[in-house]
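Ticket opened by: R.M.
Priority: normal
Category: complex prediction / small molecule

The reporter submitted a protein together with zinc ion and asked that the result be attached to this ticket for the collaborator who will pick it up next week. Submitted input follows.
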Amino acid sequence: MFLNMKPMGWPAVMLSAALLLLALPVPAQLPTLGDHSDMSLSAERKLGDRIAREIYHDPDYVNDPVLSEYLQGIWAPLLAAAQLRGELTPEMAERYAWVTLLIRDRSVNAFALPGGYMGVHLGLMGLVASRDELASVLAHEISHVTQRHISRLSTQQARNMPWIIGAMVLGALAASKSPNAAGALITGGQAAAIQSQLNFSRDMEREADRIGFNVMTQAGYQPQGFVSMFEKLQQSSRLNDNGTYPYLRSHPLTTERIADMQSRVGAGAVQVITSSSQALGHAMLAARARVLADPGVDALQAWVDEASSPQFRELAPHRQVAALYAAAMVAAKSRDFPKAQSKLQALMLQVKADAAASRTAKLLGVELALQEGEPRRALVLLSVDPAIDRLPRPELMLLSQAVQRLPVSASGQPLLVSTLQRIQTWVTQNPSDAEAWHELAQLASASGQPLRALRAQAEVQAVKYDYPGALDRLKAAQEFARQKGLGNQAGDYIDASIIDTRLRQLEVQIKEASREQALQR
Ligand SMILES: [Zn+2]
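Result attached by the on-call engineer:
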């Protein structure tokens, strides 16, 4: 698992800062990890939560419902397959988070963190040519987790390995906020020493390949994806030096590993059979990842140009679709809405025979309408059927945003109420969805329910493991209720009692956390 998050997963400048941090006597800040001879599942989860908290609060953490849904759609079947095969034990399934974290970083990388968190760089999502290729990387990483490679590293190589790894990740994240602070104080030699210390062994890599391959094929992905991903990385290995492919550095592609894979796929292997629907849908989402990775003005302009070039019609359909999708996004970004609309219309025409791809294009249309300040058009495009209770998450989030942007009017009120109810139902079923809690806070505030809004804001912080922040919001809510007196609104009493309960729960959690920290000192 974690080797991939090893320092090489981060820009070199961040690595330097991580090493700086290592020089400090920091371990007391990290969760207790037992006697160092082994890391219990719950200790590993605590370390993971601590790291996740930093990532959630990092500006490069990407909250994108469309890409998250896509990633989740690939990730969930892999977890199910690993469980079915017994690699992922029931205990581990329950104790670990099993959460994916999207990170705005152009480098091609995915890394497993302690406790079942999986970071995925937009650069990886933008590079892969199919769901199968992405699945192969994730399956390999999941296998580092299920085989408990971190824990084995910590016992084999260094007694305090978890501390080092935790400190590194936290240091790297901190450095990302002030890259100049890192400086060139650390020499490459030291960096290399740490790197080799942190690397998974060749045996562990082989094991992650073997188990990952089985998990991936069990989940129904094309085995060829594993090989083509390797080949893609191999072909691109010349890019290593500029740091674009850190995954390669953490996973050197020995010819032996590639040969292993090819023999697993076998001579009579099924060739890549990707339905056109998957190809078009994937091409659009990969284009989205590339644009959101913030590649710089020139790269963005190149995509706009591609979509208008004389050779455009000669491109393969999936390339055309990707170019149009990217061009529409880029045009909207520079607030050229007529151009964004014309690319979107061309895109919709291109994918109209394909339901899944049409939906992806439609969601882009809704976003463009919102960016243009036309919430009514967004709602028309969304065309939510009031009779359908459960919307997919991207639709639900966009609906909420559109409703909030409607001018305040009596006619908008019923829609506000029904959308608030939809989001309330969603967070009840998905209490760890911070973005949904955020939408609930916005809608509650817009509909004049300040207590409910404050409570939802508290949950946003609690989900991101910021307990003091959550406590702060709840106390503000209590104070508000006290000053205003209860009973002005039907929901007030209920909201106030939920707030009291949550406040007590959080106080207990904070007390436990500080007791653990005290024990470490
Ligand atoms: Zn690996």
